UniProtKB/TrEMBL annotation, chain A:
PANTHER family per record: GUANOSINE ABC TRANSPORTER PERMEASE PROTEIN NUPQ, SUGAR ABC TRANSPORTER INTEGRAL MEMBRANE PROTEIN-RELATED
InterPro entries assigned: ABC_transp_permease
GO terms of molecular function: transmembrane transporter activity
Topology class, membrane: Multi-pass membrane protein
Protein name as annotated: ABC transporter permease
Pfam families to which the protein is assigned, alphabetical: BPD_transp_2
Principal cellular location given in the protein's record: membrane
Annotated transmembrane regions: 6-29, 66-85, 92-114, 159-176, 208-225, 231-250, 257-276, 288-306
TrEMBL record, chain B:
Main location: membrane
MF GO annotations: transmembrane transporter activity
Membrane topology listed for this record: Multi-pass membrane protein
Protein name (Swiss-Prot/TrEMBL): ABC transporter permease
GO cellular component terms listed in the entry, alphabetical order: plasma membrane
Keywords, in A-Z order: Cell membrane, Membrane, Transmembrane, Transmembrane helix
Keyword Cytoplasm assigned: no
Record Pfam families: BPD_transp_2
Transmembrane segments: 12-37, 57-80, 116-137, 144-165, 206-225, 253-274, 280-299, 306-324, 330-349
UniProt xrefs under CDD domains: TM_PBP1_transp_TpRbsC_like (cd06580)
Localisation per UniProt entry: Cell membrane
Coiled-coil regions, chain positions: none
Amino acid sequence: MEYFNALVVILDSTIRLSIPLLLACLAGLYSERAGVFDIGLEGKMLAGAFAAGAAAAVYGSAWYGLGAAILVSGFLALVHGFASITHRGNQIVSGVAINFIAAGSTIILGQAWFSQGGRTPSLGADSRFGAITLPFAEAARDIPIVGYIYYELISGHSIIAYFAFFMVFATWWVLFRTRFGLRMRAVGENPSAVDTAGISVTWLRYRAVLITGALCGFAGSYLALTQNAGFVKDMTAGRGFIALAALIFAKWRPVPAMFACLLFGFLDALAIRLQGTPLPLVGRVPVQFFQALPYVLTVILLAGFIGKAIPPRAGGVPYVKER
Amino acid sequence: MSTPYARLPAWADYGLIPVINLIVAFAVAGLVVLLVGENPFRAAAIMVEGAFGSGRNIAYTLYYSTSFIFTGLAVAVAFHGGLFNIGGEGQAYIGGLGVALVCLTFDSILPWWLTFPLAIIGAAAVGAAWALVPAYLQAKRGSHIVITTIMFNFIAASLMVYLLVGPLKPQGSMAPQTRTFLEGGQLPKLNWLMESFGFAVRSSPFNISFLLALVCAFLVWLLIWRTRLGYEIRTQGFSPKAARYAGIGEARIIIITMMISGALAGMMALNPVMGDQNRLQLDFVTGAGFVGIAVALMGRSHPAGIVPAAILFGMLYQGGAELAFEMPSISRDMIVIIQGLVILFAGALEHMFRPSIQALFASISPRSAGVVAAKREGA
């Protein structure tokens, strides 16, 4: 029973750690499926987290925080779109630029506005997205196994967490069951075919990029308003890139994306849990090993040893109409 | 594919447009300063004063520039081959390992002028090796080099933390760093050079690896524009199809280009590790690998552009440190914003002002524009 409880606790923190990854991963999915590579997920998430922390601190409401995060992250997504869709610039370069602009400006503005060394003020319970206790969770707590799982694992997350899992299936539905999704996938594979059909490549890609921005805003809000009580500088700490890795791991599909993010979240949770405790057979595993594992796994996947990840065909290529 | 825009005179193409892009980047950075509630012109004045105000300041500026020349060249070489090496940060970090291992082994036996060449080889070899895996995967397995080099940055960071808190740390020490190198592992400073120009320098980390950086810049120029290999690299970057048609081995060029790029990035470690701190510390690269991207874009991947661009960023680093003293609300992170804006305007939005400049040229003298300049398509 003790092991079972420990396992449930690890799985619970797995979910908590994988939510920002999942949201950022789904965000990247829209953009990349539409043929716009986005390595600026990290920057958009960071800017979103800062906006969320700052707005929630000033207005005292988590919803204002979420709104501000979506706006700021959406604005950066538009900058990315402007550079890579309208001006047909290099999408990688544009993404790198956004990461730096976000990393620098969150610290500078945070210091100038709140003077707390780049942090935003610590938030009270009512200006954060707190845990939601699902119905009957308290009552079911004492039922062995099933009730405990329901209480500990399924109940007690914030609204953004439930939204993230909802978005997995919403994304699947949008992508594979709607006209917009079909066109978006088409524009990522063969934009000239879409153009020939009389549909605007530019407008389709802009819409995809805007969805990316909004979802990164959610991811940032989760970091600043649920996982922490406010913004801390560099709080994304490479999660945007892990999300990118998860996206490749999932071969740009929503449901596998969820499992990839849960896997990477699990590695993270395990690393925290196992810190310093020796494992049977292998002895003490350094924490850095677990930290590097998502990246190593992605490289191995990319090398083609675990199936083959084929990106959308028109990804990274700006669309030029025939002249 | 036809050229989308009309032809401009060379001076406008290589001089005017980059300068305009740069001015816009700095203007937006000025807006951020304004948003923080400070005077951007005063901030700029403090920065310039801080970077060039005294011999010591100039020496610091050049010390930072040294690192950026190496990483800028690394990114530029890869650019010429049509590859985006975003992993300069990791290659430089791991390059420090090569430097440290050489220094820790030989610093008590050999004088610095014998350790130095060995350390150069060590840094270059380790940096190149770290770039080899992504290069191989791109060349043979078709996995995207941008993604793999990003992953390798993180793997390098984890590996170095592991080594510095574990095997490389001297016994009984708490700080995550190696022991300090002895005399044989320390590069001589170049302060005498500054003093010979009449500047008083008391102490600065400005060291001999600056000269090595200049030599490397020359060698890169020689390689890219004066050798057969360089021609092949440029062909591969300009048109992979043409390269294949001409019988240039694609995989070979990708791997060689990335290894040269990685070696240059790795050599950046000489400057801080052997030239200044004399020990291997955590995070000694401090973003220099990424600054290399901005430097290469600004310098248009040509050594003659990269050296001044590196000095400009060295100026921003050193001036930014002084600025943080004078205006406490503006920390050194301002540089990161400027860096991002330069990458945005000189890289991704490189062509934003081109049509209007072409229109301007065409209206001044219609003959200077080859094709009808106002012809813009798509949008």
